[in-house]
Amino acid sequence: MTTTLKLPPIETGRSVFGKIIHAREVGLIVLIIALVAVTTVIQPSFLFSDGGFRELLRQPTILILIALGQAIVIITRNIDLSVGSILCLCTYLSGWLFANVPGIPIPVVVVIGILLGAFLGLINGLLVAFLKVPSLVITLGTLYAYRGIAILWIGPHFIRSSWLPPEYRKLGTMQVFGIPVLLIIVAIVVLLVGWFMTNRRAGRDLYALGSNPEAATLFGLSERRLTLNAFVTSGALAGLGGLVYLSIYATGDAKVGTGYELESVAAAVVGGVAIIGGSGTIWGVALGAFFLATISSALPVLGVPSLWQQSIVGVFIVGAILLDRLLFLNRTLQAKRKGRAL
Amino acid sequence: MSAVMTDPAAAAKYQRFGRPLWRRLLLRTETAIILAIVLLIIIATATVPYFAQPYTYLTMLLNSAPILLMLIPVTLIIITGEIDLSVGSVLGFSSVIFGLSYAAGVPLLVAAVLAIVGGGLIGLFNGVLVTVVGLPSLAVTIGTLALFRGIAVGLLGTRAVTDFPEEVLGFVISPIFGSPLPMVTVAILVLVVAFAVLLHFTPFGRGVFAIGLSPEAAAFSGVRVNRTKLILFVLSGLVASATGVYYTLQYSNAIGTNGYGFELQVVTAIVLGGVSIWGGRGTLLGALAGGVLIAALNKTLQLAGIGSDTISIVTGAALIFSVVVASVAGSISRRRRGKASAIAAGA
Known about the structure:
Number of strands of chain A: 2
Largest sheet of chain A: 2 strands, antiparallel
Low-confidence stretches of chain B: 1-5
Mean pLDDT of chain A: 84
Shape of chain A: globular
Structural class of chain A: mainly alpha
Oligomer: heterodimer
Order of helices and strands of chain A: HHHHHHHHEEHHHHHHH
CATH class of chain A: Mainly Alpha
Distance between the termini of chain B: 9 Å
Shape of chain B: globular
Distance between the termini of chain A: 13 Å
Helix content of chain A: over 70%
């Protein structure tokens, strides 16, 4: 103790192979493959049909986008319950623009949709960052407020597929080498966000803020700026989710996106994001969202009425946090044992 | 300190930071909310047609009774710094258990007991995961929210149980002896008084506040943190499932989607009533007043013909407004207190 402080090299005690085996992502991939395999054996058309394969890959895209944003917010020790309402407003605005501004180019609508989402996220972020009010409360308020604006604006109307330009509708069904274009777009977004969160300074700062806000502030990180960043990103991703929704379903009313707030939290938690912030990977979240979305399409095929779907989601949320807790306890136990051995 | 001792006049001048009683009472969140309710009712009576009728109050209380009942134990949970988002699903689950067992020939009372015990077990499950296993309650109760809503919907499917005995249904929605208050008001009042005494006048209740301020400090001063939380989660499950039985009878309808989304309304009412979501601060009266304010706003808007469209905007705006005001007021009073203590330190 009195001599020079010599830190032992960080030893996780596992080989590369062990690390791979124990990663959450691998577990999820195995689960997804098993789920798809079992479902396909029971009902071959689940995978081997024209629409089946496409649906399997296309349907999780919306949840993946929203879950990414949710995960970034949760990593900073916040939560965003307003994502479903943001998605609804962005979906309807985009459809409305197509209907009411003849000849508007698709990229312009896409940009406006994402910007609206980012703006609504900015409002969340400003309220959370500057008022020091818990995000749970603020986004609960904006969950209602944004949904209310949507109900007031949309009323009983709904988006008709005739509003949309044919190219945009085609985007929903377009495939490259059998893979839906939407999934390719979402995969690119996942890669970008994942790369940003793992390799860029600004991404690591978000983890730092979430794992220890006091230390991050002492280190010189701006809590306000980072919180704003997280909420704006979440809003923008929800906006993009709204655009994807529009291209898949070519319709939408004031109820679009209800319940996404909890489903996205579930996807993040199942994907390995700790609800207390500071940890979790974007890859895990994307796989978690893919897994949950695949469950809901596989259940009816497996003979479970789709009504039970939500309870399965619940089982996986509780299971995932329990698993995380057990792994954590196991790690601390091993660390203690090692400490004694030293 | 010695300076203060030598000059008692200065000490008296600067050390009494306490405000006069009337200002302390007036500046409380509960008072503000109650004033807002009174103001709203006066304005509504004067301007909204058909508002000044007993029937208005009857339906207002009937509509908001489930929220008002469920928020009572959840308030205590939030004061300990935890949260219970599963109450809406427990309501639905208990409604389905109640309906299914009644339809299977179980006597009404036994069916109700079964449903309530079921809710208590869900509360126990939540509580064990939070206290024994040590999981964050937000994640646990989002999980059980999905889990038990799914089971409720899955058990009954698209069916509904609606053939409850007429006389029971009539009793549940009847007013108390000519007053404009429904029977459930008694239940709400009894529960509020019981929980208010528990929270504000017993060692258990002081433990609840202590846990919210600092669980470690509470544990060191002898509060049994885990036991307290576990009891509160069980109580929340029991009250939510009892509310489920009541809700089923009020609408004579047991379906899996009963109480969908109520958890957010409950939390909204509690936070609107001045209970800190960080824990440690708040009163039961405030939470109840928050629930009544939302109910009164809903009723006014509905009667004014503005329709249910605006209700969610108003709910959301009221919630954000209340936390904004609390945050600004908090920072102003901190600044003033800071100045006062600076003066005292200088003296």
